[in-house]
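Team,

Forwarding the record for the chain on the shared tracking sheet. I've put the sequence and predicted structure together so nobody has to dig through attachments.
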Amino acid sequence: MPRQAPAARRGPTCHIVLASALILFAAPLARSPAVAQEADLEAAKKQFLTSCGVCHTVEPGAPPRQGPNLHGVYGRKAASLPEFTYSDALKGVDWTWDDATLDPWIENAQSVRPGTVMNYRQADPAKRKLIIAYLKSLSAKP
């Protein structure tokens, strides 16, 4: 019997098993929860900066811009920062910023509270979800 090259003796099954093992062990590393969460948070930050960053800052202790500083806004009582002058329309609310209040607010603040100064509107629910996720990440309690 003629001598075969080592790869030929192993046959195609060996290559399939090796490729399958690489996929099974490498794929989770490429998209681990930490990597996915970091990528999602980067997308959320980018959306926030694009949609809200002109009027709002999120740097801790930074002065307000046209709108209040939103660092820590998630879970905070609305219109509660003493260093910002809120519209009369917003001063009269008694709610805390969370998913249920932020989503309609970002969609159309004027329809939620007519007379408010915020004119920004975001009709895309996926973009609103990203913005809220970013704000939530800045308010997480250790």
